[in-house]
Design a protein that fits this description.
By secondary structure, the protein is an alpha/beta fold. The chain has 2 domains: 194 residues, HAD superfamily/HAD-like (Rossmann fold); 76 residues. Helix content is 36%, strand content 12%. Strands 7-6-5-8-9-10 form a 6-stranded parallel beta sheet, with helices on both faces. A hairpin with a 3-residue loop joins strand 3 and strand 4. The radius of gyration is 23 Å and the shape is elongated.
Amino acid sequence: MHSVPSRMPPLPGGVPMGGPVRAIGGGPYLAVAGRRKVDLVPRIPAPEKPHPSVETEGARTISGRKSCFVGHLRPLVAANLHRRTIAHLWYPCLFDSMIHSVIFDLDCTLADRHRSIDAYLTLFLAKFGDKLQEADPPAVRAVLGRADGNGYAAATRAADIVANLDWSGRRPRATAVDKHWHATFPGCAVAMDGAVDVLGELREEGLALGILTNGTVYAQEAKITHLGLDECVDAVVVSEAVGCKKPDPRVFEAILEALDADAEDAVYVGDHPVNDVQGAIDAGLGAIWMRGWQDWPADQAPAEFVVDRLAEVPPMLATF
């Protein structure tokens, strides 16, 4: 936060500068005399023609398939960034530590893994319930949750589900359970509380938004589309399409490139201490830990920035 002299040019629109001015929050706002907020620069509507920094024709995902998961900023976001550029030229000292991009993990950050499994339970019982000795929903739900490991046990999940349920006859093959999971679970995704609202709030601040997630392109894009998050962010990168996964710095570089962002101006929000927090820090980004999904390793330095719910992210960004 920077103090600047009161003898500065008036704000656009003729708003007088009556006292010390401070930059607050993560957005392009000023607090005059610490009492009220005013727009530093009027919002610029999206141009009729694409901004020069935006690719609209033939935009593709990192996976190479044409869709809304483009790796470049949309015109509206480019307009917001253009507004920030004008503001920076007028009052550069206010923007020295401004965050320009916020990138989110998907599972256990934007998507609630626990409630997603609750939704999947109904489909699982419809498919396999008649083969169980007792189709007790709470007991089956507990097995599904333990086998899933909050999304980090994909390699053993199906085998563990088959091994830990009591079947009345011949057990189904683990491959059949795995196929059913991959075909139906993405459509059971449930958004984390406040996900869409928080993304909307950050977009109103003019921030570029992205999703970086480990997993398969099919499953992760299906979840994002099902949740409507594709309309809330500007770029999506899935590890399978890049050929490496978090915490590899290259996958963080891929989302930064898609957003046309610099690491030092970006913050990553995720639930995993190593893959998300340490991975982002090693790649040069700021990092916010979404607490409550993974235990923090005893041999890892404590997280500097911690939230328990998404609504805490916007005010946390002001501390970077």
